[in-house]
Amino acid sequence: MISVHEPIDSGGMLHPELRAEHDPNSIMRDGRRLDHAEGTSKPLRVLPEPQPRGAKVRGNRPVDQQEAAGRFIAAPEHEKMHDERLWDLRQKRDREMHGIAEWEELRSLASAIKEHTLTHLDKYLDQFETNARANGIHVHWARDAAEHNQIVHGILRDHGAKSLIKSKSMLTEECGFRAYMASVGIEVTETDLGERIQQLDNEDPSHVVVPAVHKLRTDVAELFSRTIGTDPDNTDVHYLAEAQREATRPLILDADAGMTGANFVVAETGTFVVCTNEGNADLSANVPKLHIASIGIEKILPRMEHLAVFIRLLSRSALGSPMTQYTSHFRGPRDGGEMHVVLVDNGRSERLGLEEFWTSLKCIRCGACMNTCPVYRRGGGLSYGATYSGPIGLIIDPTFNKRKYSNLPYASSLNGSCTNVCPVKINIHEQIYAWRRVLVEEHEVPLAKKVAMKAAGVLLSRPMAYRAAIAAADTALAHLPRFIIYNGLNAWGKHREVPHAPKQTFHSWYHANRGGKP
Amino acid sequence: MRIGLFIPCYIDAFFPEVGIATLELLERFGHDVDYPCDQTCCGQPMANSGFNTECADTEALFVRNFSGFDYVVAPSGSCVHHVRDNFDAIEQTDEVKEVRTRTFELVEFLHDIQKVDAFPWARFPHRVGLHNSCGTLRRLKHARPSELHEPFFSKPLDLLSKVAGIEFVTPARPDECCGFGGTFSVFEEVVSTKMGYDKVSDHAQAGAEYIVSADSSCLMHQQGCAERIGVQMKFIHIAQILNGVSA
Amino acid sequence: MSSRDDILASIRANLPRVDRSLPDVPLFDADPPVSLLSAFKENLHRMGGMFLDPPSSGDILVPIRIIIAGAKIVCSTVPEIAGNRDIAGVDASRDLADVDFAIVRASFAVAETGSLLLTDADLHVNAVAYLAQHLIVLLDPTDIVVNLHHAYRRPDFRDRHYASFHSGPSATADIEGVLIHGAQGVRSLSVLPVARATDDPITQ
């Protein structure tokens, strides 16, 4: 029992017991700790524990996010590490924010630039295509995931390519790209460490920026010992990362083609921009002669001067690092090389027509909303059972499948922190709220919820009936929570105590002490 | 001035002392405070869950109860947030709009309308951790949330710092959600209670004897969580401290 | 209809009917650091890069010579210092797989983020900056701009097919947030301030 009221030195941590010895490799010459990229600002350690797996996805049935989140929470070492690490990213983000006087102005600019571009999307895409073609880039258009996969396969087939190295791309996750490539006999190797871990473990990325953030070093050690032959007893992170580098390097050198996504596209110059910390996108793009980039149509910006705003915001928001280690601008193929761009719609143009939700297309996939989200940090990204997890996932996933993702907009306390950290000012929590209305209107919520809410609506609009219920509650504690929170007693009392019943309600007190009608 | 007192359902049923403190506090400033007896709720629980149509009658009842006051004051940020920002299941007549703009949360009322500069009757010689509910912090803008690069301000701290003897502690995550979230607390009870455990543990680590808040709903949830995991913590509504509760 | 026409038609049918003008982006340079070089150096260090202090007299390249002493394969694209792998003779990118040190010159640097811009003209073969184990960059101290707003007004982004900001070495912390240099690309990045030779074609 925690009963002392003497403050303990938590070092700004919720779980101070995670503090570990300094990693000497992360110390600068002047003694300060290096925490660029996704590095933590303080070293953390937890005990080994089996990794909880993600949501059970069964076809089109609604994903039970809470069930999977519950299993993640039941693995305390994973949950603590996940929560502290992501909160650390949020704190690093705050530090970077305070270092930039014009931060809020940059967010407003970013939002305005994106909204302008999205409301003129046809024009800017056309301009990009013209300029990219003039620079020697082959431009393709894909209506949906299937067409994207076929186009890429077609390009590879034309070149007799059998192996592909690629950098992380949420769009290709959306498209089920790796599974498709496996079905047509093309060997795909992810080159981002986190994404490679997820590929080897046959798991989706759990976060848009740090795909394996839900795993512990012991999970990775076990995985690597099975897949790339590392020593199962060696859980040293440097050893594991180095083993992966050595195992991946030959695949990079021998690949027939390389693939990247893109963080931004500049219409004026026909450029696409890729940001990584590992330099793996640059290896994927620059080692094989053939480079294919898969790009969502919403990534476009008008001019180079606009790009500056987003590059200043992206990594600071995502990781609390001033810049990604590599920010690469591709305007055309290199000598002797070939460059293809596949512009993918996959539901985006339709989303543009959703009056309450079109601004979700402003998203630059920084993951800041996930890092700050208290629900995401507790439940883990795989609990959402969808390509996009966390707050941004709650408002994007239902556009792909309302039924399957009908529970997701309820996986939020509507606290609004996501909206405040969003570098492009998407009103995320308001869209979550709006999605609930849409799902109710379209009958995508469970009957029990509907019955409870209808009953509550009836009771709360009838003072007499309401008073009768409260009066009954006065004498029956067991009924109180049921009434107050309009749901089963168990849901409240399962993991927390019910409130203590007072001697009288305020209503009765008021009449006893201030008169008025009984 | 004539004030309509809105006491949300869970305060009525579980925390009558919060309603009493709010009433007495407003009376201390010489206001004519009336508690319309037919009041029930603002409609938020249904709206919050997406059932907007289901709260139309409740919203209409709210307007009938609170029409004609100079101000409507409630000791609950989340309810006031609903009335002010989301109360749209009924037709937006002039009367409805009037009630919506005249509805204030207690801290806002004391800080912005009453502009209180002293609570000479209040003394609270304890170490407290302030919990800003998300509705007051990010919707009603009681304080500068930590996510924004804006000058610091905090209306509840301004008020509480006028109370003799009070001492504040700062948890590691001052404005992290406690996990109540209205119906979230039951629809997603596992995550909700985990957030609650973390919230009370964070305040306990910081050395708080009390968690004080302008929202009893958050406190009800946190108290239930603290009792379940055995964190010794007391919970108190800001109205009680400002009204000079003897703890 | 082609997919292209389909997509554009769908976009036009769904365009939000709201008026959103394109804002001008200020340069945000009202309060520049006293010394761009010092600011660059500080931020480069934060990103895990190493700034090599030039000797006060004598051979300015000594810090590099010390680093590469004993290295088997050095590939230099700069006239100031010779390597033993001629980049002009590299046929395919993978021929650079055994390079220990690559030495290149940056087009310019950004004080705000400690970044260096390396273009296809600087690299000759783009992959050299990623396949080498270590990267050493020469930077003319007069080639530093204050922030990214200034950086993106440079002509390199309109002229070059490839231009990449390097801010420190290859890094990852994908496992438990433990920072590691050399995830896939170079294990270290060192920068030595060396003025451009006046006959350097890039300055002409």
Please, could you describe this protein's structure?
The complex is a heterotrimer of chains A (518), B (247) and C (204). In chain A, 47% of the residues lie in helices and 9% in strands. Chain A has 23 helices and ten strands. Chain A has a six-stranded parallel beta sheet with strand order 1-10-7-4-2-3, sandwiched between helices. In chain A, strands 8-5-6-9 form a four-stranded mixed beta sheet. In chain A, helix 2 crosses helix 12. The longest helix of chain A is centred in the N-terminal third of the chain and has 23 residues. Chain B is of the alpha/beta class. Chain B has two domains: 112 residues, no CATH class; 116 residues, Rossmann fold (3-Layer(aba) Sandwich). Helix content of chain B is 46%, strand content 12%. Chain B is built from 13 helices and eight strands. The longest helix of chain B is centred in the last third of the chain and has 17 residues. The two termini of chain B are 31 Å apart. Chain C is an alpha/beta fold and 204 residues long. In chain C, the strands form three sheets. Chain C has a five-stranded parallel beta sheet with strand order 1-11-6-3-2, with helices on both faces. In chain C, strands 7-4-5-8 form a four-stranded mixed beta sheet. The mean pLDDT of chain C is 95. Chains in contact: A-B, A-C.
Going across the major beta sheet of chain C, what is the strand order?
1-11-6-3-2
Low-confidence stretches of chain C are none
Placed side by side, the strands forming the largest sheet of chain A appear as 1-10-7-4-2-3
Q: Determine the number of helices of chain C (DSSP H or I, runs of at least 4 residues).
A: 7
CATH superfamily of chain C: NagB/RpiA/CoA transferase-like
Number of helices of chain A: 23
Distance between the termini of chain A: 44 Å
Chain pair forming the biggest interface? A-B, 98 and 89 residues
| Rounded radius of gyration of chain A (Å) | 26 Å
Mean residue pLDDT of chain C: 95
Largest β sheet strand count, sense and barrel closure of chain A: 6 strands, parallel
CATH topology of chain C: Rossmann fold
